[in-house]
Specification:
Mean pLDDT: 94
Low-confidence stretches: none
Helix content: 40-55%
Number of helices: 13
Largest sheet: 7 strands, parallel
Radius of gyration: 24 Å
Order of helices and strands: HHHHHHEHEEHEHHEHEHEH
Number of strands: 7
Oligomer: single chain
Strand order of the largest sheet: 3-2-1-4-5-6-7
Distance between the termini: 41 Å
Strand content: 5-15%
Structural class: alpha/beta
Length: 384
């Protein structure tokens, strides 16, 4: 068991070395020109720009990378005198042999993450697939560095780049909307503020669009050019249980959110949209915890379950924002600062959390993942 664990560790070590070498290729000048050959070798559909460029990239980027992997894993095995660590050396030599073969045109079959053709999957979360790595080449070169495991990107906050992304935020006039807009702007995103309040002024140079409840389809054309849609609007009728309050709660918190979500998901039409577009939706920790507002809980759980169902076939990444009580007009006794919550949301998104939980309630961090797993499993078993 110990030897097997050491063997697995040696492979992970080899991948960490590869990721750090890759990182150095972007920030250390002696390696930058060599690594640039790798980026120049591929077109947007991951076909080769030319066979000559591809072979040069293999010889001057991939071969040295594999040599460093083999050298460091070999040194660790030698110093520790743990022979199971030799597995990492053999693993690295596998990359070295194939890179040498490709550089000499003896092997023209490229590796899986550079396989040409349309992207058919959404970016994977814990390991690197074609869609994940495509973003490194054609979304943001200074992010998405990992080669197989995504640990380094998660640690560095480079598993999602917001720089240059067009991000639309509903509920833009509320406390959380304003805080999200400010934080996203700091990250270099181009923010579009969506508000149902026509007389509201959003600070900064932010495009502001007014929309009406029930007229979500009117935003369809604008959503086509949006990379990330954050559905953040909501209403809390507190203890009111009148028919009007019931209708309003579900209309705003569930039906409107669902319509906007579907309008946005319909814009995922091109291959690259699977890599770049994302839907973030604020469903609240009311999905699993009491909010002392029954209609708020019921409506938020409804949209939460619908999004869990939709995730099974989603054409792009969908993130849930599971937020605890922050101070706002809807919740004046909230204990968390909306600015801090917005910072935490963005920080966790950049580390590729698909369920972003920000709350002071420790139970939510346990209860929500359990609920989401079993609800998703139930939907997967009994729907098609």
């Amino acid at each position: 068991m110990t030897q097997a664990t050491l063997a697995i560790f040696s492979i992970i070590l080899a991948e960490l070395v590869r990721d750090l070498y890759h990182l150095a290729g972007h920030y250390w000048k002696p390696l930058q020109s060599l690594h640039n050959l790798h980026h120049k070798a591929y077109r947007r559909d991951l076909t080769m720009t030319s066979l000559e460029m591809y072979c040069r990239a293999q010889l001057y980027n991939d071969v040295p990378e594999a040599l460093v992997m083999a050298g460091i894993t070999g040194l660790v095995a030698l110093i520790s005198q743990q022979y199971a660590l030799v597995v990492g050396v053999l693993y690295s030599f596998g990359f070295l042999i194939t890179a040498l073969a490709r550089s000499q045109q003896l092997l023209l079959q490229t590796d899986l993450t550079h396989k040409p053709g349309d992207l058919i999957e959404i970016p994977s979360q814990w390991t690197v697939n074609r869609t994940y790595h495509w973003r490194h080449h054609f979304d943001q070169g200074n992010a998405y560095f990992c080669g197989h495991f995504t640990f380094v990107d998660k640690a560095l906050g480079t598993a999602l780049s917001l720089k240059g992304k067009v991000v639309a935020v509903t509920g833009a006039s509320g406390s959380m909307g304003r805080s999200l807009i400010a934080e996203l702007t700091k990250q270099g995103a181009r923010v579009v503020a969506l508000t149902s309040s026509p007389d509201v002024t959003i600070p900064g140079t932010v495009e502001t669009l007014t929309w009406r409840l029930g007229a979500e389809s009117e935003l369809s054309d604008r959503l086509r050019t949006v990379d990330i849609l954050i559905i953040n609007h909501g209403i809390n009728v507190h203890g009111d249980r009148t028919p009007e309050a019931i209708q309003k709660s579900f209309e705003v918190n569930a039906i409107s959110a669902w319509k906007l979500a579907e309008s946005f998901l319909e814009t995922v039409q091109k291959s690259e949209h699977r890599a770049i577009k994302e839907l973030w939706i604020n469903t609240s920790e009311a999905e699993v915890s009491p909010a002392f507002s029954p209609l708020y809980e019921l409506s938020k759980r409804a949209i939460g379950d619908l999004i869990t169902l939709r995730r099974l076939d989603a054409p792009c990444v969908i993130r849930k924002l599971i937020l605890g009580p922050f101070k706002s007009n809807l919740n004046p006794i909230g204990v968390m600062s909306p600015n801090w919550v917005a910072w935490a949301i963005v920080a966790l998104a950049k580390r590729d959390f698909r369920d972003i939980i920000v709350t002071i309630n420790p139970i939510t961090y346990i209860a929500f993942p359990i609920k989401e797993f079993f609800k998703s499993l139930y939907f997967r078993l009994f729907t098609r």
